[in-house]
TrEMBL record, chains A, B:
Lineage per the UniProt record: Bacteria, Pseudomonadati, Pseudomonadota, Alphaproteobacteria, Caulobacterales
Protein name from the UniProt record: Methylated-DNA--protein-cysteine methyltransferase
Misc remark: This enzyme catalyzes only one turnover and therefore is not strictly catalytic. According to one definition, an enzyme is a biocatalyst that acts repeatedly and over many reaction cycles.
Annotated source species: Brevundimonas denitrificans
EC identifiers of the protein: 2.1.1.63
Gene3D superfamilies cross-referenced by the UniProt entry: Winged helix-like DNA-binding domain superfamily/Winged helix DNA-binding domain
DNA sequence: GGAAGTCTCGCGGTTTTCGGACATGGGAGT
DNA sequence: ACTCCCATGTCCGAAAACCGCGAGACTTCC
């Protein structure tokens, strides 16, 4: 049950120290998805959910977006802050994702702090779930959220990458 | 769980011998919905389903579409054949709706014949269900399908209107 | 006998409902 | 220290209910 509102998205691939990432942008230069290449099928699933009817074609992302991603991995960890993102999702999820972008590189928050930040201090677990469903990894920094006791708890791209990203941001 | 792809639809009203009809068209002149004014809430519901995120504003439909509808009710029962329609719905539903448009004005089919026409001779009841969920009444002529024994069985806009439409088309 | 009405059951796609699971954390009990 | 329990929003899968039907068996009533 879907309607057909044709829209063509562009799928680019960028090499990084933690493996190739897939970068999906739309006609207006907004980022629609970012994920690691070894989880391509999951990303497709998310895309189908968030942009029903859209078709995805291989191509090159706008230069500014590509460059920002590359600069981030080279050490300029603030390079992603100016990028525009666009997602589907429920009201709640969008609120969570917006809150994520407010966490500066180099810092972390607990799931509890995240829940509190969006005004639903008791929806801790729900916030964690929404976090895990973030379709735009790295740019929407879901990796900056960790357990109250300091454990990394989980990451859709693999805990190793979460650790790497956090170290990378702290180093910078 | 919906994404936001803004699209504005136009809602027009046309007077007919069987009551006012609501006529929804999109920016490209395709018909997105048509229903009788006394079932407005149901139409809104269908629209929300088939065009999530779209907003509907009162206005005037493209002249060609309006004129076609008026000509149909004046006796030119083929006037609707050239109109473009656009719907959501499942694969199955769309197949059924396409098959409906192939039934010429003045003729009827049974639910069984309809099911057979789409290649699923045993999906009789499912075809009936899809028939009833047609969002574009009259133009997609779901009223031309009747029971195997000749009874009219049902019509979302009321059996009376179904009878009137069939008589009208036979007269012409 | 036979035409016409009733009842029963299976058909197949969609929708609704319901029960879990989940990238947590705080409090209470042992 | 460790275990158990609960709150919270969403997704997912399974199961059941729903129907704009129709064929076949069975009655009824001339």
């Amino acid at each position: 049950m879907r309607n057909a509102q044709p829209e063509t998205l562009t799928l680019d691939r960028v090499a990084t120290p933690v493996g190739e990432v897939l970068l999906v942008t739309d006609g207006e230069g907004a980022v629609r998805a970012l994920d690691f290449a070894d989880y391509e099928d999951r990303m497709s699933r998310l895309l189908r959910r968030h942009a029903p009817g859209a078709t995805v074609a291989d191509g090159r992302a706008p230069e500014g977006v590509r460059a920002a991603v590359e600069r981030y991995f080279s050490g300029d960890v603030r390079a992603l802050d100016g990028l525009t993102v666009r997602t589907g999702g429920t009201e709640f999820q969008r609120t969570v994702w917006k809150a994520l972008r407010a966490i500066p590189a180099g810092e972390t928050r607990t799931y509890g702090q995240l829940a509190a930040a969006i005004g639903s201090p008791r929806a801790v677990r729900a916030a964690g779930l929404a976090n895990g469903q973030n379709p735009i990894a790295v740019i929407v920094p879901c990796h900056r959220v960790i357990g109250a006791n300091g454990t990394l708890t989980g990451y859709a791209g693999g805990i190793e990458r979460k650790r790497w990203l956090l170290d990378h941001e702290r180093r910078a």
